[in-house]
Amino acid sequence: VHPFSSIEEEKINPSSFVCHALLGKGSFGEVYLVEKKNTKTLYAMKVLSKDKIMGQNLVKYAMTERNVLSITDHPFIVKLSYAFQSHDTLFLILDYCPGGDLAQHLTKEKKFSEKRAKLYISEIILALEDLHKRDIIFRDLKPDNFLIGVGKNQTDINIIDFGLSKRFINPCTGD
Q1: How confident is the model at residue 51 (pLDDT cuts 50, 70, 90)?
Q2: How many CB atoms lie within 10 A of CB 54?
Q3: The model scores a pTM over 0.85
Q4: Catalytic center residues
Q5: What is the structure's pLDDT at 175?
Q6: What residues are paired with 47 via a beta bridge?
Q7: 3-class SS at 67?
Q8: Closest alpha carbon to 81 in 49, 171, 73
Q9: Closest CA to 46 of 64, 60, 26, 63
Q10: Around Cβ 163, how many Cβ atoms within 10 Å?
Q11: Cα 22–chain centre separation
Q12: C-alpha distances out from residue 51 to 25, 65, 105, Å
């Protein structure tokens, strides 16, 4: 199975979604709010240009992000629903987190209450602990990579952006 084929057996491609809005831009891709046509479910669609990825030798980062997301299942880590590609583009279909990121909230509010800060810190620690149990090191710890809200509890943290993550290999055991 190719690493950018659909996770589920259902044949998914860009025409499976209706694009509603641009959520953000990065150095080699964009993220859009999309709706899956047959379920009406909202997702974030990360669209990565193969030309930009290849041109900047960033293929390993795109693959790392896809691979990490495909093996994680934690309430405080954004979920990957689908991954697929076209001739010139890679697509990651992720949970839509409507609450924005921690950086936006910190800029607007200047500081959080102690109770709220403890909640966020606890959720981040639990997510990092889960990654560490899988021998994954998250190396992009910054407020921009923590989104707020998905599912029933719109206040939970969701870690995103796993391109810089590393799989730890014990030099003594090779594991």
Answers
A1: confident
A2: 12
A3: no
A4: 140
A5: 55
A6: 30, 91
A7: helix
A8: 73
A9: 26
A10: 18
A11: 16
A12: 16, 18, 34
Residue whose pair of structure tokens reads 């960033």 in the numeric block: 58
Of 8, 54, 143, 86, the C-alpha closest to 62 is 54
Distance, in Å, from the CA atom of 29 to the CA atom of 6, rounded to the nearest integer, reads 19
Count other Cβ atoms within 10 Å, centred on residue 169: 10
The tokens describing 41, both together, are: 């479910």
Confidence of residue 1 (pLDDT cuts 50, 70, 90): very low
Greater model confidence, 6 or 144 = 144
Percent of the chain whose pLDDT exceeds 90: 63
Token pair of 167, please?
């799989």
> Could you give the CA distance from residue 122 to residue 145 in angstroms, rounded to a whole number?
16
C-alpha span between 117 and 156 (Å, rounded) = 12
Structure tokens at 123: 């959720």
C-beta separation of 79 from 69 below 8 A: yes
What pLDDT is stored for residue 27 in this prediction?
67
pLDDT in tens, 4-16: 554 445 689 999 9
Centroid of chain to Cα 28:
15
> Higher confidence at residue 111 or residue 51?
111
**What is the Cα–Cα distance from 168 to 175, expressed in whole angstroms?**
8
Q: What is the pLDDT of residue 57?
A: 66
CA gap 107, 85 in Å, rounded = 36
Q: Can you tell me the distance from the alpha carbon of 67 to that of 80, in angstroms, rounded to the nearest whole number?
A: 10
